[in-house]
Amino acid sequence: MTTSELDAWLYGSRVARFTARDAGRAAPRVDLTWDRDALARWGYGSRVLSHLLPMDPDHAPPPARVTAWLDGLMPEGRVRDHMAMDAGVDPEDTVGFFGAYGGDTVGALQFVPVGAAPRAAAVGGRPLEADDIATLLHASVARAGGQGRSQRLTSSLPGMEPKIGLVRDGEHWWRASPEQPTTHILKVARAADSPTADLVDTEAAALDLARRIGLTTIDAHVETFADMRCIVVSRYDRVPDDGAPGGLRRIHQEDAAQALGINTRDPERKFQHGRALPSLVRIAQVLRDDGARPDPLLALTALNLAVGNTDAHAKNISLLRREDGTVALAPAYDVSMHLHHSHASRIFAMDVAGERDMDAITGKHLVAESVSWGLPRRRAVRVVARTLDDLRAALGEIDRDAHPGVPAEAWRTVVERAEVLRRSVD
Question: Residue ranges of the HipA N-terminal subdomain domain (predicted)?
């Protein structure tokens, strides 16, 4: 049954109501109405839900903005289409989609029927064995490829790579109920004969480096369940909390494409590639407008360039929107090494001081880019130099044997890039 109206809850309060209009059309309009109690809690103009959607009881946000923002919470490509078909809704019907999958989204927002409150989540069933997890991973691959719908998903995870969300409780894995927050994301490795078969390996290694230099809180490792190899990543938007239902507290977030109002149904729109949007300067401005320093964005960009992560697009940069209204750049995620592959694109996802050729971008470009954000030059030099110095130290300390799937050429490429970028800073 198609849902035309949903209440959205955030940090224990009903924050807004989303209403689908013209549901029979190709692109239904979605209206947002703020809850008066949420306005009293967070205040007029609060951006606790989104930078794009400040709370204003007198002026409803344009439906196109609301729809673009909701789209950013949804999976991409065929995964979205097949999840919608499983639920009996049109893939373009965002409200209907979250009527089926809105109990656990990325961040802290929960969608419930009008007048209801989120139900307390509890682990049910039995712990999953390796074969059970492999079956779920196989189903995610089939779904991404437009085949089979044997395993109903319970959580909405953006992105195009086949993935699932699970709950880790001690030594056991559990499948989440529709309302239960998952603790980990499992993303399937590409086939062994794929030219990018090592993508999950280099992601785990790059996140290990990012953690060592203070740019992420994520734990990541590569694991095989039966015949399915994947990267297992802890969720930074889920925090252990004994006082919260199920022992987990949700932390709200939005990605930069959502914050900027970019509808990414066309997956190319999350890359800048010479366009005005998205851009690092506009993401930095969002951070500034919301009371946060953009320095971590500069450090993250330096890391992405050094490890050769061409995929650092607007959906792979996110902002945390905390319960107290403060904002911060989210921990680094989806960071991988790409440039050791001869076939890899060498175009960075974002322009840096007008340059997007990764072989041409230098430390001076990084400094010039951040000066355009309003950072003092000396501060920018200090951030870039410290990030690259810390990365070089981490490259010397990291246990490479813990990442056996990362080829020597990948490590060599990152070491060389970090050195070249560092020499060109001053």
Answer: 6-111
- Nearest Cα neighbor of 421 from 362, 359, 358 is 362
In CATH, 251-423 is 1.10.1070 = yes
pLDDT, one tens digit per residue, over 97-130 is 999 999 989 999 999 999 999 987 665 668 999 9
Say if CB 279 and CB 349 are below 8 A apart.
Answer: no
Burial category of 425 from C-beta neighbours within 10 Å (exposed 0-12, middle 13-18, buried 19 and up): buried
Residue 307's pLDDT is what?
Answer: 98
The stretch 169-195 carries a mean pLDDT of 91
pLDDT > 70 fraction of the chain, expressed in percent and rounded: 93
Using DSSP, state whether 97 is helix, strand or coil: helix
Burial of 67 (0-12, 13-18, 19+ CB in 10 A): buried
Report whether the peptide linkage leading into residue 278 is cis, meaning its omega lies within 30 degrees of zero: yes
Sign of the CA dihedral running 9, 71, 61, 268: positive
N residues, the chain: 426
Q: Per-residue confidence at 153, pLDDT binned at 50, 70, 90?
A: low
Bridge partner list, 33: 17
Which residue is associated with the tokens 């029979």? 24
324's CB contacts (< 8 A; 6+ apart) are none
Band (pLDDT 50/70/90 cuts) for residue 283 is very high
Sequence-distant (6+) residues with CB within 8 A of 244 are: none
Sketch the domain layout of the chain as residue ranges. Answer: 5-113, 130-234, 251-423
pLDDT exceeds cutoff 50 at 265: yes
pLDDT tens digits, one per residue of 221-232 = 999 999 999 999
Q: Would you call 94 exposed, middle or buried from its count of C-beta atoms within 10 A (0-12, 13-18, 19+)?
A: buried
Residue 71, number of CB atoms within 10 A of its CB? 21
Question: Which of 370, 379, 359, 368 has its CA nearest to residue 305?
Answer: 359
pLDDT at residue 404 is higher than 70: yes
d(CA 100, CA 111): 9
Range list of H helices, 103-230:
130-144, 199-212
